[in-house]
Amino acid sequence: MRVSQTAVFGWQQRWRQGGERAWASKGLGGNQCLLDGSRLRRLAAALWHCCG
Question: Which of 30, 14, 10 shows the shortest CA–CA distance to 22?
């Protein structure tokens, strides 16, 4: 499955401490986007131009 042993041990530990609820999704990770609508449109256009 290409999962590290460390990840498996972490999952096991969370299961032991919190059961099924410990594995529940906590939502999206990462930081909130700081680009405004105009800049998001410019980025989308640039990506579409080079990669679309």
Answer: 14
